[in-house]
Write a structure and sequence with these properties.
The chain is mainly alpha-helical. 71% of the residues lie in helices and 0% in strands.
Amino acid sequence: KRCMNLSVYWVSEAVPLGAAALVPAFLYPLFGVLKSSEVAAEYCKDTTLLLMGVICLAASIEKWNLHKRIALRMVMIAGAKPGMLVLGFMCCTVFLSMWLSNTSTTAMVMPIAEAVLQQLICTGLADSHNDSETAEATEDEAGMSGSVSPMVSSQEDITCILLTKIQYLDSQYPTKRDHMICKCLSLSITYAATIGGLITITGTSTNLIFAEQFNTRYPDAKTINFGTWFIFSFPIAIIMLVLTWLWLHFLFLGCNFRETCSLSKKRKTRREMMSEKRIHEEYTKLGPISYPEVVTGVFFILMTLLWFTREPGFVPGWTSLFEKKGYRTDATVSVLLGFLLFLIPARRPFSSSSSSNDDDPLAPMINWKDFQRLMPWEIVILVGGGYALAAGCKVSGLSVWIGRQLEPMSGLPPWAVTLLACLLVSAVTEFASNPATLTVFLPILSALSETLQINPLHTLIPSTMCVSFGVMLPVGNPPNAIVFSYGHVQISDMVKAGFGVNLIGVAVVMLAITTWGVPLFNLTEFPAWAVARNVTGIL
């Protein structure tokens, strides 16, 4: 009961989530649920170090503008046609969000998109202004042949009229189609950030929460790592990316794909050419690729390769070279490479010119301020609080009790149980934060799976992914709020578009868990590691 009371703080957000995550630290010891030292140990886990290492790399990417170079290059390849422009921004956002947080990615990409949109709007306003001047000139010429022509008496009157027209035009988009393009591009970025966050364990905090809670509850299950998660989630992201793009295109741009997606230069309008010019100018400002960007890119590739080859499953990984097994995790790789970024100088060896603005020739790739600026300490405490809450549910027997209350669902097939769980969490997460929702539901769904003799991964993985689909309201997640703050979209637009994206996400996740997820995680059997946990819980 006391553990259930804690979940109220998480879902209601009566206090900041970071503060709510500290409640178990004093409440559990006071009520005799867990010792203070045991609760404290829950606040720093392996995934905490994994996140810290990734943030080091993210700090280097942002400091040396590698993210901007990647984004602009991908958009340049896609072109300035509205449909291809949206697809280009979505692709680069998905890629960046795989490695950076969804919030950071959205905050990085939106200014670039806004610059392109403003160029589109300004060009449209100029066209509208020129058209109105041409029309007035025609009317004046026609009036000259009549009896009386309306003349402007002074230069002040001319200035007043022009300012009035400009203010009127500035208060609106040039055309309704331009407004629709702005809506489509803005919403596509927040949806793409959500999709990209699904692909990797470090892509979003909810993936980290799931990985740590699953490995803590089922220590004998050696199934969840960077490689297996990527193999399962990458096809989901690709399918969702295509379907989401098609949905947004249909909703805001219509069905004329030949007009909006043509790569032919003959079909480009003046505004599209101006937008391309603006993108090229932004890319030119970055200059040639620098030494720190190369180092960051090498570290990025190296970290990914080491994650994939640690324990790939089908062949022995590099951890088999060590005598003691089980000592090295994905966090080992990320922290090691993150630490090296504090040591490697940002200036090219044996080079007389410096690539950085710092006069110190030995200045490292990143310093502590760079790391501190990006490190989401609230998320660290929030994730730790989730682990503490799960530990309290386990010790108090709350998880087992909830599982027994859900025994009437035993007549449902596994896919139906999973579908109900996905729909429930995707609905709740529209009004509560993603980490809070998942933290509350993970112990419940674990107990439910054990009670119904379903492989826990069959319900936990889809629910973890669907908890990220809070895309219908600005309060659903921070990327939504960032996009909404730019003023191109209204809540009604987010609800309409987000509802479709939500349905697409749930459908694709259900497709994945019932097809390629079955052989990947052996979902047809109730595993021995879950049987052992179930027996322990009952005892």
